[in-house]
Amino acid sequence: MLKKNQKNLDEIMNWYVKQRPIYRNLAHKVESIIREVLDSAKVSYYTISSRAKEIESFISKASKDKYTDPVKEIKDLAGIRIITFVKSEVYECSDIIKPLFDIDSEHSMDKSKELGDDKVGYRSVHYVAKLTEERLKLPEYRIFQDMQFEIQIRTILEHAWADISHDRNYKFNGVLPPENDIQRRFSLAAATLELVDREFDSIAREISEYEKYVEQMTMRSELDIDINTTSLGNFLFHKFRDFIRDDQLAPGFNQNDETIIAELKGFGIKTLSDLNNLIDDDKLESYIYLSSNYLGLLRHIMIFSDAEKYFKKAWGRNWHGMELDYFEYVKGFNKDIEGILKKYKVEVWDARGIEILLDDKEEEEDIA
């Protein structure tokens, strides 16, 4: 095997300096394709990123003896990385991504299979690929003819492990000293990380199975199910699906699911059946008129049902008050609402955001 001299490396570097912008463009294009397809398939992932290999990194790699023709042999000049939350999503993404490109099976690998069952360490899926002939026929892709790129798919924890154990500038790189069982402890840490990764994946699968169970029960109107974020979200989606479909209601809790579930339990709502019995189908339009998402919807259901009970047992001052328009609207359904708000010191604001004291308002009306 011939060893490259400095002149060879200079030529290789000059070639890559000219080609790197094209590889960067290729990486961005592939990232866009993958992102669009995964989003369309509603596949969950943490992040997608892309890059062209840095010039110094390329030259460092090209200078190694194992590369006789670095331009052809180095496959990751354009790189795309998909980071998922759990392992099952890695394979879900893989199954969707593989048909999109021309995969080089010889240079692609599943690191978890390569590592084997008796070892711990870096586990990730790597694909070396090219754009398909069909895509290369399009004018905007012709410049990428015969250009390869690498796709990495890994979990968040695998990503953390890869970064901390492979960073050449960090303490954990290479062969560790034997003192104080450092190498053994490092291996145990890797094994623990892998166990946590597997447990997260197992829990995620169980939650998915529970979601399917709740959906089936809800569709059969069998609602003797304890309220939690999963069951509550599934029930509300089916109960108000027409309003969600028409963009009148956003299907979410605004990251306040724990708060609203505590309010529901304070109100005495413990199961989906309890909640369903509380909902007045004649007031669905009114609930939606006042609500932007599940959080407001559930509060309006409780207030319309029994405002006194809500502010006494469920409110907990999780929100401070209401706008005057909302107050007037609720008053149309509950004539006692003004007294209830005064009793529990719930603020009411006008359109300018200025608090209106209901007692002062009453005195002004008496004077008039």
From TrEMBL:
It comes from Paenibacillus ehimensis. CDD domains: NT_Rel-Spo_like (cd05399). Pathway: Purine metabolism; ppGpp biosynthesis; ppGpp from GTP: step 1/2. InterPro entries: NT_sf (IPR043519), RelA_SpoT (IPR007685). Residues 50-176 form the RelA/SpoT domain. It holds the Pfam family RelA_SpoT. This is RelA/SpoT domain-containing protein. SMART domains: RelA_SpoT.
